[in-house]
Structures are given as structure tokens and as C-alpha cells.
Design brief:
The structure holds two protein chains of two kinds.
Chain A lengths: L10 E2 L14 H12 L13 E5 L8 E6 L5 E6 L12 H4 L2 H5 L8 E3 L8 E3 L2 H18 L5 E5 L4 H11 L4 E2 L1 H18 L16 E5 L9 H12 L3 E5 L5 H4 L3 E3 L6 H14 L5 H7 E2 L1 H8 L4 H8 L3 H14 L3 E3 L11 H14 L14 E2 L16 H4 L12 H6 L13 E5 L3 H4 L3 H8 L4 E6 L11 E4 L11 E4 L3 E4 L14 H11 L11 H11 L4 H7 L1 E3 L23 E2 L3 H5 L19 E6 L13 H6 L4 E4 L1 H6 L7 E6 L9 E5 L7 E5 L27 E2 L6 E2 L4 E5 L4 H4 L1
Parallel strand pairs in A: 7-8, 7-15, 9-10, 9-13, 10-11, 12-21, 15-16, 16-17, 22-26, 23-25
Antiparallel strand pairs in A: 1-14, 2-3, 3-4, 5-6, 5-17, 18-19, 19-20, 22-29, 24-25, 24-29, 27-28
Chain B lengths: L2 E6 L8 H9 L9 E10 L2 E10 L7 H5 L5 E3 L5 E3 L9 H5 L6 E2 L5 E2 L5 H4 L6 H5 L5 E5 L6 H8 L2 E2 L11 E4 L1
Parallel strand pairs in B: 1-10
Antiparallel strand pairs in B: 1-8, 2-3, 4-5, 6-7, 9-10
The chains are: A alpha/beta, B alpha+beta.
Chain lengths: 749, 177
Amino acid sequence: MTTNRRDFIKISALGTAGLIWGIWNTRAGALAGMAEKAAGSPGWLSPADMKITPTYCEICFWKCAGWVHKNDRDEIWKITGNAKDPNCDGRFCPRGTGGVGMYHDGDRLKTPLIRTEERGMQTFREASWDEALQYIADKLAQIKAEHGPECTALFTHGSGGKYFTRLLKGYGSDNVAAPSYAQCRGPREVAFYATFGMGLDSPENTDIRDTRCLVLIGSHLGENMHNGQVQEMSDAIDKGATIITVDPRYSTAASKSKYWLPIKPATDLALLLAWMHVIIKEERYDKAYVEQYTYGFEQLKAHVEPFTPEWAYGITTLHPQVIRETAREMAAAAPAVIVHPGRHVTWYGDDTQRLRAVAILNALLGAWGRRGGFYMVESPEVPAPELPPFPVPTRNWRMALKGKYALADLALANGLCDATIPTPDLDCSIKGWIVNGTNLMETLPDRANTIKAIQNLDLMVVVDTMPMEITGWADVVLPECTYLERYDALRDTHHRVPVIALRMPAAEPKYDSKPAYWMARELSKKMNLLQYFPFETMEEELDHELQQMGTSLKEMQQIGVKVFDKQSPLYFAEGEEVTFDTPTGKIELYSTYFADAGFDPMPVYTPHPEPPEGFYRLNYGRAPMHTFSRTVNNPNLHDLMEENTLWVNPKTAKLHDLTNGQQVWLENQDGIISSFPIKVRITERIRWDSVYMVHGFGNNSAKLSRAHGRGASDTELVTRVMMDPIMGGTGMRGNFVTFRTSGREEVQS
Amino acid sequence: MRYAMAIDTKKCVGCSDCVVACQTENNVPLGYARDWIREINQGVYPHLHMEIRSERCNHCDNSPCVRSCPTGASHYEEGGIVKVTKNKCIGCSACIVSCPYDARYIHPDGYVDKCTFCDHRLKKGELPACVSVCPTKCMYFGDLDNPESEISQLLNKRLHKVLIPEAGTGPRVYFLH
């Protein structure tokens, strides 16, 4: 154990006056913990002795803290929310409640596997852990010797990624990417950073609970079950808040709204500009706030002058009167108004600019830093493990982008995928992938491109709990135990209060599965990198951290969640001096950051391609009981929704002679035909110019006994990707499909 | 004591958490459910209305299932909860046919099963599993005989309905709108 400990935790309060430090002297507690351990008695509890154990959910990034209950036979029975956790307020969502199914699923990966035939065929032989890990260590050593360690990448989603990141950095590569960035929320982070000097992260700092007006643009809260936000939307409904929903589909949220704006798809930016026009023209913006906190108002005013509601009418098909009324409604509620930034925002390639428009609108209304708008967060800082410095890579993911996507602040999963396909001008194409908990076949657009990249690899390792399709492409598959069977790093959450939550196992790992921490540490032994894993077990590492935070593993095992006092205010005080982390120190309505990088300093509307005759825009979204393809085989969640359906407007159905429940295959603009058919759902809830399906279905892995071939995959039809020039987001809503009554030739034979 | 439930259709998003919470709490076998979600759509694009309801046994005051049960397995318990005594049930399905709400099913073990308002939890002072888990807090449960209870107050001040009132069963699951 290292002795270089820090006896405090740091609370960072971005947004008010920079950083504020809160210091707790916990030396006594830490020393007591050390003494106890030195005496050979760690003092923490064993799951076998506990009827209920704390956890935080792994089914989505919201990571609600809860309790795992065992029945009379000491088997895992049910999961409930932890009432102390602000992420869930004691209530799990259906996915979290159904998390038990992940543990019980008989299709789980059971032993390490090594590929015996060509990639993609799911043909493996069972291997021991020692053999599988030695295989990986040898290959990584070979890649390092032949190409350099930078030619290795980690794709990750979920808690285990932390340990593989540590391993990869120790090995000499920082090519670590999560598809949750460039395939999901990246544009929004960059846009809000450019405007307010900080991103939104998770959970978003939206003060929905106290808002008087919530504006949702393509964001379908209630179907996207981000627990705290859905709960707060419900609170807001109770308090009589106005909801304005902009969506070509009559979403669940639309059905709760005072105003539903059934916008023509791909025209949202025109609406946002028209809203700004009305708010400025009618002088309904927050004058004092704009005066004190913002930069570039005059430029913005001149910029939006031509964008009248009448101009937007022709583009969006929304009546000018509705545009004016909704703008006035927002202004009347201001500053308790939220123009919600959404989450999956990689739609049309100009997404960062669209999200800039959202951010600017919030700034005009004075919502940032105000009650009912956006509150100011504070994170508990969990002490980082004291590790030797990582070697500095000579090349990394940014170089592989060759100067493009200059404002990307995290690695792009699609960029790393592209960098794996050798090109003449790339000096280091990537040779090794470690894929942790993300089914890249479904998360990255353009499946054929992903397969092409994989075929160029010297090593492909997949760590997962389930035989997802991506495992079929691996050389080595490592079976991870589920979150109900392992410890993980503390969840540290910035919410209205700083919070930490503990995950501990409720049961021993089933089969021959192992926690990711154990895998990474065992690999580190074989790679001479053990110095990056100073603690033999997660328990020791956790207790070491918790002692420094004034608590202990034992205490956390009994309470699950610990809330710290907030040191800084939630909202700006009246007239408070605030410096924003932007080049001008102000909220930038005119972005000097974008201008300097050569991008439009204020958002400009550009029309996007329209579907050709007989084709319909493919829109996709979420269902409340599933998280992407990750949950579709979960027996409990499969029971709630077994397959997706294709939403088709009755007019469209009539044109194509479709009947309700009929199975159709889809063909996109590039001639790609879906692997599986999907059932038609004829409904008035979708515009006639688009179709809709829930993402995550149509799984190709035959080893998923429930999910295989159920419904269709939107991902395989997303072959036209509209790249965001600013940060490399993959716009995926520019694909058009038509209906077929038969599948591909090879599928039929 | 008269137990009742109210569901605020203005808040329910139809996420099915009530369904899966009931299934795990009560060990309902997969493929079966004691509660379910119904979505009713009306209108033509873009003039639409949707009501989402979490539905279950209505624990009727005048229950056809209790009346039609030949063995007395279906019966009322304290607070008006309609229950089935497993080992008295012969699985004849008379109750299933008589229920206008289709709230009952035959358990794979041969007896008829249905919502119990989680009476095992009520006895411990806990709310039914579905109510306790609901992320939108759209479900209310309590005693109609107590005018001070939250549910009595809500039903006093909010517009509400019951399902299929013409069946005359006196349902005690209310839908606020």
C-alpha cells in the first residue's frame, strides 16, 4: 500500500467563481482504518452474511443506487431504489427493477473463449482464464514491438472500462473511446461548453423539478427513462408547468404537453432561430442577465433579424402564430424555463450548431444558473488511486483524425474505427481492440465499415456479460460477471448535492465469470504493469478511498449512499459577479471559440436532404424498458417488450398497401436491406414523411435465444452518416427507407 | 377500511415499471402479469390525444369473480381486497370469464392468480410494489373510508373515472384525468 495519501476531498463548483475547495479532516478515521487492516481484520462485511446489499444500477449511465434483496433461499430476488439517492429518489425505472434478469439470463457468457474459425462466426473453444489472458498479453506485446502501443484502442461503456483504461494507459495508449460521445451526447457538450464554459454531463443539471416551462426538442422523456428527469417532469406536471414538445412523432411527452409542435423532420434549427427572433424582436429576453453575463448580443440580434416565424413556417411547416405563442410562453416562464439539451443529439451533422442555438436560447431567457432553469453542480471528488505516471504516447486518436473535428474533446469511437482501416497517409493504423461492454455492431453506424475495420486487426478482445453480436468478431471473449456479482469503483455524482454510491456483490459470480477489475489486474501481471493495480482487491481500493472521505467500506455497505454538504449555491445570486470558462469570460452568444477555430460563431440553418419519392425518413428512439441492444435478451425486460415495430402513418400505409402487424423488410437509399423483417404498426402518432422504430432490436447473434432476429435493426440501415465538422459526431437521421415484402436473397435461401 | 387505488393518467408514461416490479415482488412467472399498460389513442395527425393507463384487478365492491366462484376460493378480505385461496381453486376459469377487466390468469401451477394489492406488504405498512416503484409517482393507494387520506382527497378534487362502469361491479381503481 502506498503511504502518499490525501486527507481531503475536493468539491469543485464550476460556474460560480471557479473552484471552491471544501476540506474535511478525516485523518483520524483514515488512521483507524489502517490500524484495523494492519491487524488483519478488514472489518467489512461479506455478501453471504447480508440479506440486502447496496448496488448502483449498470443498465444505463444514470446509475441509480439501490438495494438487492435476497429471498428465503438466499437467491437474488428483487432490486429496489435507495431513498437517499437523488438520482432515483428510492424508485428504480423498469430497466433497473428488471435488472435481476441480467443475473438470471441463461444465455450469459460462461467461460473465457478463444476463436477457432474466421471472425464473425461465433465459433470458439473454451479456455482457462490463464490461457485467455496469456493470449491477450502475448498479442499486445507483439503489437507493441511491431507497431507501438499507440496502435491499440479501447472501446468502452460502463463501469469496467475504468480498469481497462488504466491498463491501456500503463501499456502506452490513450486511445479510449465511448460511443456515448460521438454517437450520442458529444455535440451538446461542445455546444454548451462553447456557450457557458461547461458541459452538461450526467445527470444533466436541468432543474426540471422547479421549472415552469419545459421545452423538449426531439427529446422523449418518458420513453427515454432517465430516471431523475422523468420523475422531475412528473413533479413539474403536478405543479402545472407548461410542456412544449417539438417532435414529428406524437411521443409520450407530446401527449403530456400543452403545445405539441409536429415539426417537419430535420428543420429544428429553423424553429430555434425563429424563436430567438421573436424573443429579441419583442424584447422578451432577460435584459439584465443578457447585459451582465453575455457576450455578442448585438451580433446575435442582427444575425436572427431575417429569421421570422413566417420564414420558419415554410421550412418547419409550423404555423407562425404557434411559433410566436410558444416563444412568449417560454419568456413568460423565464427564468424558470428549460430548453432541454436532449441527450442523443447526433442527427444531421450540424448538431453542435443546433445545440448552440438551444444554449443561446436558454441564455436569452436567463435560465442558466437560475431556479427552474439550470442549477450549478458540485461533485464529490473521490481520491484517485496513487499510481506511477503513465508513459506519454507519441501518437493518439487525435492524430488519426488528421486535423478534422478540431473541437472534439474526447476520442471518437468512429474515428478509432476508421483509423483501423489502413490508408496510405496514416502511419499507425490500429491493430488491437479491447471492447468492453459495448456492442459496436449496434452502436456504430455503418456496420460494413465496422466489419472492415475488425478484419484488419491483429487482436480483438471483447469483455461482456452476454454473447452480443460483437463477441462473434472477437479473438478472445472474456465473460464478465454482472453488476450484481461484483464491486466497482464508487459512483460519484454531481447532483443538487454531491453524492457517492457503493456497488457490492449480492452473490458470487455465476459460472466462470469474473469482475473486470480482476481481469485487468491479472492482465497487468502478465504485462509487467502491476504497479498500476496496487490493491489486490476492489474492496481494499474502495476502503482506502472511503477512509480518506471520512467513511469506510463497512459503513457504505450498510448505507449504500452518502450525501455530502453542498458548499456552493445552486443558483446565481441576484446580480452576482460570475466568470464563465469561455474565452471572453462571458456567456458567449457569439462564440469566439468557434470563430477562432473557423466555424460559424452563430448557428446558421442549412437544409438537409429530403427522402426521395417512395422513401421515408428513418427515425429511431428508445423504449422505457430497454437500453439499446444491451437489454433485449434480459428475460424480465424481454417479457415487457419482445420486439420493435415500425410506426407508419395510415396515409403512408395506404400508399404502400400495408396492413397492421404485417411483416416488412426495409431497404434504405443505398440499397441496404434489413436482415430481419419488422412488424408494421399503423398509427396516427407518426408524420407521413417518416417512419419510426425503437433502437436496439434485430440482433444478429444466434446465441441470444430471446432476442435473435426479433424486430429490425435501425443501425444496419444507417449507412449515410452526416459528420459534424466541429466535433466529429455521426449524424444518423439522414437515412431513408422503403418497404419490401421479401428479404435479401441470401436470407431467403 | 376500503382500499382503493388511483392512477393519474396525466403523469403515467406507460414505462411498465409497475408490471416488472409486480412480477419480481410476487414471483409472477415470466410470460404472465398481474398488471399491464394500456394506451388509448384518438384523433388524426396532428390533432391527437393519448391516455396511458396502468391497469390491474379493480378489487370491485360487487365482484362477479367472487360470485361466480364455485368453491369459495375467490373471496373478499379485509379492506375489500379480492383474493384467491390457492388450495381451494380448481382452475375452472369461471372467474376469468366473468371478469370484465380480464384481470385474472391461470398460473402454470394450475390455480388462478391476480393482483392482491400486495396485501403482504400492506401488513408491513408498505405500499403495493407497483405504487412504491412508480418513477412518475402517478399511483396513489389508500383507504376510501378515511376522508383525510390522500386518495380520498384526490378523488374529491380531481376529475376521475372507473373502467367499464356499466358492468356495475363497483371498481375501486380510479383513473384521474
